[in-house]
Amino acid sequence: MSEDPFETLEELLSAILGPQTARDAVAALRSSGIAPEQLASMGGMEELARMSPGQAMAMRAQLSQMFAASSSQPVNWTMGRDLALQQAREGAGDPTVTAAQAQAIRRALTVADLWLDTATELMPAPGGREAWSREAWVTQTMPVWKDVCAPVAQAATRALFEALTHQMRDMGEAVDEAAKQVGALEAIMRTMAGAAFGMQLGHAIGRLAQEAVASTEVGLPLTREPGTALLAANISAFAAELEEDEEEVRMFFAVREAATARLYAHVPWLRGQVMSAVEAYARGIAIDTDAVEAAVAQVDLHDPEAIQAALAGGMFSPQSSPEQLEALGRLETLLALIEGWVQVVTERAIAPHLPRGMALAEMMRRRRAAGGPAEQVFAQLIGLEFRPRLAREAAELWRRIGSQAGDAERDAFWQHPDVMPTASELAHPEDFLTMRQADKDMDAEMDADLASLLDGTLGYTDAAREADRADQGGRGKRDESPDSDGPGAPGGED
């Protein structure tokens, strides 16, 4: 690289923004009065000047990728996907799914539906029964991750962009004036903000890909198309870690996956309600701009990985607005109801077939309570922390409904969101059916009173109604009698 800081900067910007824009940006900096030694003192310029041609080329490639995102998008989703794929292959790598593994998983998912037929009225989900690698899991779930993370990503990148711009302006009025003249520096700051969240997204999803066992995690549908899928390598690793039989572990997760898929396939309103609750919650998240600025102030602006690392400590601050609390409560309750139902029907379905099934179910509950990889990803990406107590209460409620009223009555609650159990009802599962029946009786009484009001009999007792009917009947007979004094009767007036 050139020893002139301006030429060094122009070379880098040329690879990112194009030669003409780079020349304009550097010309604005020169004309603004910034001395070469001032530019050289900015973070990282000395290191850039000492780079070898190979290092410079590698950095240009990295920065070119970082700046490849569309200017209309607040997050570099391409970088996030590529980093997720890279992370998914780290460690033991991403073993290719063998023909034997694929056949075993398809068979397990098919058998799981047969077992579930005895535990729920909901029909099997349409779509394929697939065996995925970790790379396939990332590719298939990334579109939904974008939907989930988009609202908070916009807020996070906006806060980071403002912090980066503020730091640049603190370097001097000349830099501020140069940015106003060209606008290139603002574009760089905005793109770096989008790249930082994209990297955060990619690392988190990549880590989850190393441990996820199915296409659904914590009750969320991570694919847009119906169907079921299991990750062969992760199930094998999971069974080996627990020293459990791999076939039994595979069947356990196949039943959970198939049960969740049935809900989303045959409850038309569920996916929309879940995703809208996630969006409403994420949209209200407050970004701690002071923490962002403090983090940015300690890193080099040309190093996006350093920015990402500095922000990994948490950009979210608690939000206590009524709208945010309402969205959070709605989301937590809905996810708990999904998880609780899946637990109950899974336990029912596997009980006659898997000797270690109940032990595996208990292990899953403890994993949720301790905060598994999926829970950690959601906490990192959108600040959402799941409460296992709600899932336990929901499972107890579904279990009681099934035992007292039957599976059909239990599953009928999924027909419409207005009849689903509420958060307050989860806390008292033993009284749920009694209170619901009392509500039905009250509604029936109100309907009867309304009908009485409309036909003019409101307030009449049954005896009064009978007496009134008898009296009206007697009058009718007297009117029709030949001895009646009515018009036309003998002896009456003409």
Give a quick summary of the entry.
It is built from 23 helices and six strands. It has helices at 5-17, 19-31, 36-41, 45-49, 53-66, 77-88, 99-116, 134-170, 173-182, 184-209, 232-242, 246-266, 270-283, 289-296, 304-311, 322-350, 357-370, 373-382, 388-405, 407-412, 423-426, 432-455, 462-480; strands at residues 128-132, 216-217, 220-221, 227-231, 286-287, 316-317.
**Elements, N to C (H/E):** HHHHHHHEHHHEEEHHHEHHEHHHHHHHH
Q: What can be said about the biggest beta sheet? A: 2 strands, parallel
Strand line-up of the largest beta sheet = 1-4
Q: Give the overall silhouette.
A: globular
Uncertain runs with pLDDT below 50, 5 residues or more? Answer: 38-48, 178-182, 486-494
Taking Cα atoms only, what radius of gyration do you get, to the nearest Å? 33 Å
Instruction: Estimate the helix proportion, in percent.
Output: 55-70%
Number of strands: 6
Strand pairing plus helix content: what structural class? mainly alpha
Quickly count the helices: 23
End-to-end separation: 128 Å
Strand content: under 5%
Whole-number mean pLDDT: 76
Outline the structure in words.
- The protein is mainly α and 494 residues long.
- Helix content is 69%, strand content 4%.
- It is built from 23 helices and 6 strands.
- The protein has a two-stranded parallel sheet with strand order 1-4. It has a two-stranded antiparallel sheet with strand order 2-3.
- A hairpin with a 2-residue loop joins strand 2 and strand 3.
- Helix 8 packs antiparallel against helix 10 and helix 16 packs across helix 19.
- It is globular and about 110 Å long.
- The relative contact order is 0.09.
